[in-house]
Design brief:
The structure holds two protein chains of two kinds. Chain A contains 13 helices and two strands. By secondary structure, chain A is an all-alpha fold. Chain A has a domain at 4-68. Chain B is an alpha+beta fold. Chain B has one domain: Arc Repressor Mutant, subunit A. Chain B is 64% helix and 12% strand. The longest helix of chain B has 25 residues, at 84-108. Chain B is globular, with a radius of gyration of 17 Å. The chains are: A mainly alpha, B alpha+beta. Chains A and B meet through helix 2 and helix 4 of A and helix 2 and helix 3 of B.
């Protein structure tokens, strides 16, 4: 039996389930709903009201999902928060692990560390980074759970999101990759700016950015990174373009534009020594490359603004098209 | 809290403790979930489908039940049946339940 409300309800129950059981549970729930409707309506075609009553008997999608989750209710963070907590913890740990690994590799090559030095510092960074990430997410959700903070709108059949077609879904990996990339960006720009695009000059690294100027606008970098993480997290939770994703994209990208302009128009952000060095080695046919670096602030700002505008337009068009 | 609420809570706890025993005992022959819900309700043992379905899946994960999709006549349905391990768990728990219920009844009736 095909019905849009049933499709949306079952999709909402199963969307966070492990892919190994998702299809099977979906099939089982369709059979159950059909049995319940037959019990209620006999051979007559069920009305919308009957469908709503049957689905209400099954509980909200979050409640039913929690019943399918073996670990739900056994932890400090119980239903209906547990599903979202697990998802967010997984994302945070994956991003921290990826960010720390890439940063560790960069530092290994730049500082020419011995392999065991890199390994030991990587283990130490991973341990403290993952522990901190886990602790922050857990404390936050324990607080939500204890205070009964409503995450999202209260359940209502009319608010159930439509089942997206495969091509309309926002890729989970795309979001995770973006968040991980953002963590790497934050680690590098806040903790190791001296290594960014560094050119190995006369026995020392000449960084692209003026480290003092860059460190002076740390708060702008942090805000830019956090806005990016917020946008991608909302996309990861929604998994499809809708009003919430569109508005979040619009707000975060607009703020990102302001932050990027404030950051990349700071005078003397690019290291003068770096430009002099590049101009010396890029003569003749390669002079245009040196030109790029001379105007790097504007070039970098242009790329960021173009990407933000493109992303915003994509979110608006894909939402309105639906 | 009034006494009705306390009784309701106690009954819920008692029912929760016996659910698995009941489910295992009824699945000697293959049966699909909603059929079992109706059977239990007919015996005045109310069990919601949203409790039974996840429970059966969990018991299957523990190896106490096995399942099979049947698509022969009309709508596809997933049939569950007890496994030899499930049967062993059922026999042992049933034995305990018998002794326990006898003793509880005797105490409630003031015989002990």
């Amino acid at each position: 039996m095909k019905n849009d409300l049933i499709d949306r309800y079952i999709y909402a129950v199963t969307k966070r389930m492990n892919h190994r059981i998702r299809d099977d549970v979906q099939k089982e729930l369709y059979a159950l709903v059909e049995d319940m409707l037959t019990e209620r309506c006999g051979n007559a075609a069920p009305a919308e009201k009957d469908i709503r009553i049957v689905l209400t008997e099954l509980g909200t999608p979050q409640e039913l999902y929690a019943k399918y989750d073996e670990n739900s209710g056994r932890s400090l963070i119980g239903p209906p928060y547990y599903g979202t907590y697990k998802l967010v913890t997984g994302i945070v740990l994956a991003c921290v692990a990826l960010g720390m690994t890439v940063s560790g590799l960069i530092i290994h090559f730049v500082e020419a560390q011995l392999w065991y030095e890199t390994l030991l510092s990587w283990i130490s960074m991973m341990w403290s980074g993952c522990l901190q990430g886990f602790a922050i997410v857990t404390i936050l959700f324990a607080f939500f759970c204890r205070r009964g903070v409503q995450l999202g709108e209260p359940f209502n059949f009319d608010n159930l999101p439509p089942v997206p077609k495969r091509t309309e879904q926002i890729s989970r990996w795309e979001c995770v990759f973006s968040i991980a990339f953002c963590v790497i960006f934050l680690v590098l720009f806040l903790a190791a700016p001296q290594y960014i695009f560094g050119y190995w000059g006369a026995e020392k690294i000449i960084p692209l950015f003026d480290v003092d100027v860059l460190q002076g606008c740390w708060y702008l970098i942090l805000i830019y990174g956090v806005l990016d993480i917020v946008r991608e997290t909302v996309r990861l939770l929604e998994r499809q373009y809708n009003r919430k994703v569109m508005l979040t994209t619009l707000v975060t990208n607009s703020l990102s534009v302001v932050v990027a302009v404030l950051w990349l128009t700071k005078p003397n952000l690019i290291n003068g020594e770096f430009i002099t060095h590049i101009e010396q080695i890029m003569e003749g046919d390669a002079a245009f490359i040196a030109e790029v670096f001379v105007n790097f602030q504007l070039f970098f700002l242009g790329i960021i603004l173009f990407a933000l505008v493109l992303d915003t337009v994509e979110a608006i068009v894909k939402t309105l098209k639906k | 809290m009034n006494t009705d609420e306390i009784v309701q809570g106690l009954v819920l706890e008692l029912r929760r403790g016996t659910l698995i025993l009941l489910v295992l005992s009824q699945l000697k022959e293959p049966m699909y979930g909603y059929n079992l819900v109706k059977k239990l309700n007919d015996r005045e043992i109310p069990m919601d489908a949203n409790t039974l379905y996840p429970l059966m899946r969990r018991l299957e994960g523990q190896g106490l039940l096995k399942s099979q999709w049947e698509t022969g006549e009309g709508k596809p349905r997933k049939y569950y049946q007890i496994t030899p391990e499930g049967q062993e768990v059922l026999e042992k728990t049933k034995e305990y339940w018998s002794r326990f219920a006898t003793n509880v009844n005797a105490m409630l009736e003031g015989e002990i």
